[in-house]
Amino acid sequence: MKFTKKLTPEDFNPEVIMNSGQVFRMRKETAGAHGTPDTYSACSGDNDVYFYLNKETDMWDFVCQENQWDFWQNYFDFSTDYTSFNEAIRNSNDKFLKDALKDSFGMRILRQDLWEVFISYVISQNNNIPKIKKSIQVLSDRYSDGIHFPKPEVLAYIPEEELSQGTALGYRADYIIGISKSVCNGQLDIESISKQEYQQAYDSLISIKGIGPKVANCIMLYGFHFMESYPIDTWMKKIISEDYKDYNKEAYLEYINETYSGFQGYVQQLQFYHKRKK
């Protein structure tokens, strides 16, 4: 079924979103030619969608099952006003961030399927985006239907040697099996953690084998949608040392938390995308 939504370039740019490092299962399916629109797809949990900018109506068309439309509206976080965040950035004195905003117009923070985002960011540690995407696709091909991410009850009972073979997971295979078993036996309730207060959720996550501070912050931002989360990876360390030289790490984080309270994670995504693109 087709659903239509009016979105400005400031509201929504899938090219920026899918290359921002927050999502590994959104892609361009076809590049527009001879007047046809660029078509994109996304998959999260058991949900699938295709979407494109209809040039005749200047509206975005989303094609999905009728009972999945609410999921996708939530996934793209359409209820949040990102323009207000952008106005605060435009009115700031932060040149790097203002340049990042110009470069990253249409960014949004997605609300992804909790199970998939949980394991995806376990895979992400000490890894790069192409390898992460490849590992996720191999898991989906091997242990699901090639489209949807495999369920915990499947991953929990795969021998570690098998799970590691050809997936580039390495030591992460042990973490994935352990987390999957904890979900299956009821020791780990990811949805329950997602509803905890910020510090409690963070503490719950880093107590899990295979999840450190960076992975925890990624899960909290891209899965739990704690917009105050500000993951720091290699790229963010480069930004702090090269583009905010007047700050040490602690002073820099204090500046971010005080100046952009409530949307620090959005700021991080703009900076991350801009720095990698440069």
Strand content: 5-15%
How many angstroms separate the termini?
Answer: 39 Å
Write down the secondary-structure element order. EHEEEEHHHHHHHHHHHHHH
Please give the share of residues in helix. 40-55%
Oligomer: single chain
Number of strands: 5
List keywords for this structure.
278 residues, alpha+beta, TATA-Binding Protein, 2 domains, 5-stranded antiparallel sheet
Helices and strands in order:
Elements: E1 2-5, H1 14-18, E2 26-30, E3 39-44, E4 47-54, E5 59-63, H2 69-75, H3 82-90, H4 95-103, H5 114-124, H6 129-143, H7 152-155, H8 160-164, H9 172-184, H10 190-194, H11 198-206, H12 213-222, H13 234-243, H14 249-259, H15 264-277
Antiparallel strand pairs: 1-5, 2-3, 3-4, 4-5
Helix pairs in contact: 4-15, 5-12, 11-12
Overview of the structural elements:
- The protein has helices at residues 14-18, 69-75, 82-90, 95-103, 114-124, 129-143, 152-155, 160-164, 172-184, 190-194, 198-206, 213-222, 234-243, 249-259, 264-277; strands at 2-5, 26-30, 39-44, 47-54, 59-63.
- The protein is α+β, with helices and mostly antiparallel strands.
- The protein folds into 2 domains: 2-103, TATA-Binding Protein; 114-222, Endonuclease III, domain 1.
- A 5-stranded antiparallel sheet has the order 1-5-4-3-2.
- The N and C termini lie far apart (39 Å).
Question: What's this entry about, in short?
Answer:
This protein has 278 residues and is α+β, with helices and mostly antiparallel strands.
